[in-house]
């Protein structure tokens, strides 16, 4: 099977793509892959590091207002479609799958015009513009929240979950648990992970910085991921070593660390949520209000509805609200167990296998 994958911009779109590739490679060692991304996106550094053949197109997002920028974007789109077609004629994929981000627009569109079977994978409960546009052209739309179904053509849409859920669930079976020790923390203590998405989140950093002393005296310890761009300023404000709290800029092997995490404070990016539910990790979610159609709050509410998470809106986050929510989870075994079970029940560890099933079925029909 020859699989062309495209997805870019942020970790939430890239990690599902890589998880899917790794899954296919493990069940079908003969499979061949090509990843198309942009040079400047995070995928430009992550995909080649994973030894996946990588090509680039140039593309940016449309602005909602009429502007010169949009004229340039139309030109870029057409050029990116031409470049994508060229890559596809060389690689001759059996199937093309887009996991989100602007880059998927020209790549998946080009594939559909060449008559290649296509899938878009939507991680969120509310889709963005690119996937709504592409849903008219693709063979199938794979979704990760039932709530997303209403935005797509019914006959094409299928609920698969997010491949990253399968990746972390598989790790849970195979991996030895060493990450906490390697970070110099105490593996016998409960551990809270605070993380603001793949690029960090300033409001979360502010609430954390104002609560350091209190977190320092808790029975549980805390790994605080600041995001690369915020790390230096956070470290400077933290000053001397803070007991019980380890601040880091980024976690490179998140699946391995999550196996040892008891609870998480996070934004409500869809891929993060797929990972947490796959492992049954209770969470306190502070959705970013700065995303298209407020989709993070809708992601978070979907988990809250089934008891798998607690939601605090960014406007309501204060140090005391944050501390209380963490204590309520980590110092109350009954509440923790209940939320952990609900999270686990909401998980979709079979996502990769389901998505591969969809890929195989559309390849078969096309032959
Ligand atoms: C601001 C924005 O538009 N965010 C969107 C973006 O988020 P973002 O890229 O932040 O996405 P997610 O929270 O869904 O995923 C982050 C990914 O990065 C990984 N990670 C994170 C921190 C770290 O230190 N190390 C690490 O490996 C996580 O484990 C996860 O796999 O894509 C998501 C999935 O479409 C959307 O739901 C989010 O709304």
From TrEMBL:
<dbReference type="Pfam" id="PF03033">
    <property type="entry name" value="Glyco_transf_28"/>
</dbReference>
<comment type="pathway">
    <text>Cell wall biogenesis; peptidoglycan biosynthesis.</text>
</comment>
<keyword id="KW-0132">Cell division</keyword>
<feature type="binding site">
    <location>
        <begin position="10"/>
        <end position="12"/>
    </location>
    <ligand>
        <name>UDP-N-acetyl-alpha-D-glucosamine</name>
    </ligand>
</feature>
<keyword id="KW-0961">Cell wall biogenesis/degradation</keyword>
<feature type="binding site">
    <location>
        <position position="124"/>
    </location>
    <ligand>
        <name>UDP-N-acetyl-alpha-D-glucosamine</name>
    </ligand>
</feature>
<dbReference type="InterPro" id="IPR006009">
    <property type="entry name" value="GlcNAc_MurG"/>
</dbReference>
<dbReference type="Pfam" id="PF04101">
    <property type="entry name" value="Glyco_tran_28_C"/>
</dbReference>
<comment type="similarity">
    <text>Belongs to the glycosyltransferase 28 family. MurG subfamily.</text>
</comment>
<feature type="domain" description="Glycosyltransferase family 28 N-terminal">
    <location>
        <begin position="3"/>
        <end position="143"/>
    </location>
</feature>
<dbReference type="GO" id="GO:0051301">
    <property type="term" value="P:cell division"/>
</dbReference>
<dbReference type="GO" id="GO:0050511">
    <property type="term" value="F:undecaprenyldiphospho-muramoylpentapeptide beta-N-acetylglucosaminyltransferase activity"/>
</dbReference>
<feature type="domain" description="Glycosyl transferase family 28 C-terminal">
    <location>
        <begin position="191"/>
        <end position="351"/>
    </location>
</feature>
<dbReference type="InterPro" id="IPR007235">
    <property type="entry name" value="Glyco_trans_28_C"/>
</dbReference>
<feature type="binding site">
    <location>
        <position position="296"/>
    </location>
    <ligand>
        <name>UDP-N-acetyl-alpha-D-glucosamine</name>
    </ligand>
</feature>
<dbReference type="GO" id="GO:0071555">
    <property type="term" value="P:cell wall organization"/>
</dbReference>
<protein>
    <recommendedName>
        <fullName>UDP-N-acetylglucosamine--N-acetylmuramyl-(pentapeptide) pyrophosphoryl-undecaprenol N-acetylglucosamine transferase</fullName>
        <ecNumber>2.4.1.227</ecNumber>
    </recommendedName>
</protein>
<dbReference type="InterPro" id="IPR004276">
    <property type="entry name" value="GlycoTrans_28_N"/>
</dbReference>
<keyword id="KW-0328">Glycosyltransferase</keyword>
<dbReference type="GO" id="GO:0005886">
    <property type="term" value="C:plasma membrane"/>
</dbReference>
<keyword id="KW-0573">Peptidoglycan synthesis</keyword>
<dbReference type="GO" id="GO:0008360">
    <property type="term" value="P:regulation of cell shape"/>
</dbReference>
<feature type="binding site">
    <location>
        <position position="251"/>
    </location>
    <ligand>
        <name>UDP-N-acetyl-alpha-D-glucosamine</name>
    </ligand>
</feature>
<keyword id="KW-0808">Transferase</keyword>
<keyword id="KW-1003">Cell membrane</keyword>
<keyword id="KW-0133">Cell shape</keyword>
<keyword id="KW-0472">Membrane</keyword>
<comment type="function">
    <text>Cell wall formation. Catalyzes the transfer of a GlcNAc subunit on undecaprenyl-pyrophosphoryl-MurNAc-pentapeptide (lipid intermediate I) to form undecaprenyl-pyrophosphoryl-MurNAc-(pentapeptide)GlcNAc (lipid intermediate II).</text>
</comment>
<keyword id="KW-0131">Cell cycle</keyword>
<dbReference type="GO" id="GO:0005975">
    <property type="term" value="P:carbohydrate metabolic process"/>
</dbReference>
<feature type="binding site">
    <location>
        <position position="198"/>
    </location>
    <ligand>
        <name>UDP-N-acetyl-alpha-D-glucosamine</name>
    </ligand>
</feature>
<dbReference type="GO" id="GO:0009252">
    <property type="term" value="P:peptidoglycan biosynthetic process"/>
</dbReference>
